[in-house]
From TrEMBL:
Its main location: membrane. Pfam families: Rhomboid (PF01694). It comes from Saimiri boliviensis boliviensis. It catalyses: Cleaves type-1 transmembrane domains using a catalytic dyad composed of serine and histidine that are contributed by different transmembrane domains. This is Rhomboid-related protein 1.
């Protein structure tokens, strides 16, 4: 039975004869059992939770429609949270007989979501299609580009020291600021195998689970916002330096996830979370330190400034601001949240300032940038 048939049956049974907009939870549960309707047991559990949040034990008709349609508004989530103690089923960790993929989905739920109700909601409504294609596609494209340039230059480590490397149409170079695509395409180029390996590992370990839970649109927006903020920040703060690597997007994802874990520390059930938090911070700090070292103390003779490290820091700022807002809004509409519009306004103001800076500041300040390759 599809959604429309079920709602028509509710109307025929006159569960809301006075058109109050509310339906008794017991009446609806009796209808489900008497007609043997194929409704997910998890949704019945959440129906009880909704009823527990109402003094009369009733459910709003629109909330019932959202439940059957697998949609959740902000008020629906609040009602679920208020009645979560009434959920009778065991936690996901006690769920028996799961296949390999469903165990992976359960692992993702416990890695990403801080609330048991959210974890169960995600687990029961998750579908394998569409798969998390964005992070996988970006990582694959970065690997292919690196292999192509590695074979062409016959150099796999510290590629930026090769005189032909900076001639790539993908690299951001201050002398090519008018070619606007370079502010994004630099994410496909990397200094060497070590930077590519670090970024690809984080994109697959953190980016893919985030995309599975929060969807392609939100995670791609966060990743690309970090990438764009990275190159624009370099053009403002380190005006002579080029930029390569997807670290801006990677640090946006990682910083958002780590900040979300810290703010929901008690609710997170990922194992060894303190140890993993420390290791993640050490690895990210080491990568930033390595980038600073290559920028100011290049180990090999170079024809110009080496790539800047400011993209890492800009990505982290985007993650803590925009990213944290996205991750804390699981299954809620961003446009309904005031904080989201504040973050968008701040990001838009930064973009506008960066555009004017790139158009006028270089000439007004007399910046001596290296000649474009």
């Amino acid at each position: 039975m599809d959604r429309s048939s079920l709602l028509q049956l509710i109307q025929e049974q006159q569960l809301d004869p006075e058109n109050t907009g509310f339906i008794g939870a017991d009446s609806f549960a009796g209808l489900v059992h008497s007609h043997e309707l194929p409704l997910d047991p998890a949704k019945l559990d959440m129906l009880v939770a909704l009823a527990q949040s109402n003094e009369q034990g009733q459910v709003c008709y629109q909330e019932l429609v959202d439940l059957i349609s697998s949609k959740r508004s902000s008020s629906f989530k609040r009602a679920i949270a208020n009645g979560q103690r009434a959920l009778p089923r065991d936690g996901l960790l006690d769920e028996p007989g799961l296949g390999v993929y469903k165990r992976f989905v359960r692992y993702v739920a416990y890695e990403i979501l801080p609330c048991e109700v959210d974890r169960r909601w995600y687990f029961y409504r998750h579908r394998s299609c569409p798969p998390p294609v964005f992070m996988a596609s970006v990582t694959l494209a970065q690997i292919i580009v690196f292999l192509c340039y590695g074979a062409r230059l016959n150099k796999w480590v510290l590629q930026t020291y090769h005189p032909e490397y900076m001639k790539s149409p993908l690299v951001y170079h201050p002398g090519h600021r008018a070619r606007a695509w370079r502010f994004l395409t630099y994410m496909f180029m990397h200094v060497g195998l070590e930077q590519l390996g670090f970024n690809a590992l984080l994109q697959l370990m953190i980016g893919v689970p985030l995309e599975m839970v929060h969807g392609l649109l939100r995670i791609s927006l966060l990743y690309l916002a970090g990438v764009l903020a990275g190159s624009l920040t370099v053009s403002i703060t380190d005006m002579r330096a080029p930029v390569v690597g997807g670290s801006g997007g990677v640090y946006a994802l990682c910083s958002a996830h780590l900040a979300n874990v810290v703010m929901n520390w008690a609710g997170m059930r990922c194992p060894y979370k303190l140890l993993r938090m420390v290791l993640a911070l050490v690895c990210m700090s080491s990568e930033v330190g390595r980038a600073v070292w290559l920028r100011f103390s290049p180990p090999l003779p170079a024809s110009g400034p080496q790539p800047s490290f400011m993209a890492h820091l800009a990505g982290a700022v985007v993650g803590v601001s925009m990213g944290l807002t996205i991750l804390r809004s699981y299954e809620e509409r961003l446009r309904d949240q005031c904080g989201w519009w504040v973050v968008l306004l701040a990001y838009g103001t930064f973009l506008l300032f960066a555009v004017f800076w790139n158009v006028f500041a270089y000439d007004l300040l007399g910046a001596h940038i290296p000649p474009p390759p």
